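User: Run a structure prediction on this.
Assistant: Running it now.
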Amino acid sequence: MEMNKITGSMKNIVLKLFPALLAFFAAVSCSKGLDDSSSLLEGEWKLASVGGVQASDLLQDRYGALDVYIAFYGNGSFETFQRLVDSGRYVRYGGTFTLSGDTATGTYDDGVSWGAPYTVRLEEGDARLVMSANGEDCVYTRTAIPEDVRTNAVAPVRSRSEEESTLAVPPRFL
């Protein structure tokens, strides 16, 4: 009888602790998933500097300077908008990316991989995104991509056409 009482008490304790343990393991699993998810990068960003040099001081022409926007989406896709040299127009590249720990890698829609894996971190809360590769930091600020940049962006030109010869298409930034 004494043994049944102890067994019954242990059973009650286990039944009461089980939901708490289940919640704990679920929380641990979810927080680990956040580390590996694309949600860290999610948002729209504008290039502010490369290697400590302000983007406004790089590749200046009559239309401005180096101008790059990036949008990372929660579904693992991305878009970049890069201003064409000597033009007020932008070229749009898209693709997919993954984030494992603090390392982001990606592939463009045409199957070409990013130039390097990037170590990423957020600074100033989530106002600045730093993407580092090959010893160089690219710093982005959280900025909405202007609607005219999106709507007037051109697709990358694949062959030597008249359009390509009149527009200096920049190399992919990532």
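Confidence is low (pLDDT under 50) at residues 6-37, 159-166.
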